Amino acid sequence: MDTQEIKLWELYKKNGRKELLEKIVVKYLNIVHYHANKLLVYTSGSIDKDDLYSAGVMGLLEAIEKFDLEKGVKFSTFSSIRIRGAIIDEIRSIDWVPRSIRQKSKKIDAATHHLFNKLERMPSDEEIAEELEISLEDYYKITDHLGPLFLASLETEIASDGDRLKIRDIVKDDSQEDFEEKLLKQRYREKIISSVSLLPDKEKLVISLYYYENLNLKEIGSVLNVTESRVSQLHSSALIKLRNFLKDFSPAGII
Description:
CATH superfamily of the largest domain: Winged helix-like DNA-binding domain superfamily/Winged helix DNA-binding domain
CATH topology of the largest domain: Arc Repressor Mutant, subunit A
Strand order of the largest sheet: 1-2
């Protein structure tokens, strides 16, 4: 932050004046637009962009109130976690996925799990489609719908015996956490990394470029020399497989 921006934050934190809050909100609305647009593509047009944008603004306001200048964390990084989380919570709250698609998701889960145990490796899309006795084209039509559902699932709470941990919380660095909570997050990071390492190479690369390099689907398509639609398929397929391996994670069971 430059000196002028730091002064703006200090004044707002000191007196909470509405006009100062508005200046801060306007300055960072681009982050809301970024995450709303990025997540919108996975809702298959079933959710209005304005709803996601409004949720993102609420996440931004929450981030502003909780931001602590003294911790030395960039606000853009700090707020992105909460903005993205608020938008995904909005996606989860809207029951927009048809029941038939949810039923098919269970079949894909079962097929993926069965093939992994049988093959002792992550199955390919072709193998999953064959196990389901459907064409690869039909499999991708299903995953196009399931992508946002599993995106929300991966970001949602992992619960066991009343203990809850949101995946997006894992990236936070909170010095006030107790030892057990830090250990839990570290174990879960390791679980995610090991699960991603099992993905086919192209899916692994898509996950890396999307979540770590923050490239959009079109940019990833240019890197892989494939269409944006194909990148969407790869991303959805990767999410489905990751969800299958992370859904049984039990916080209470690893400590």
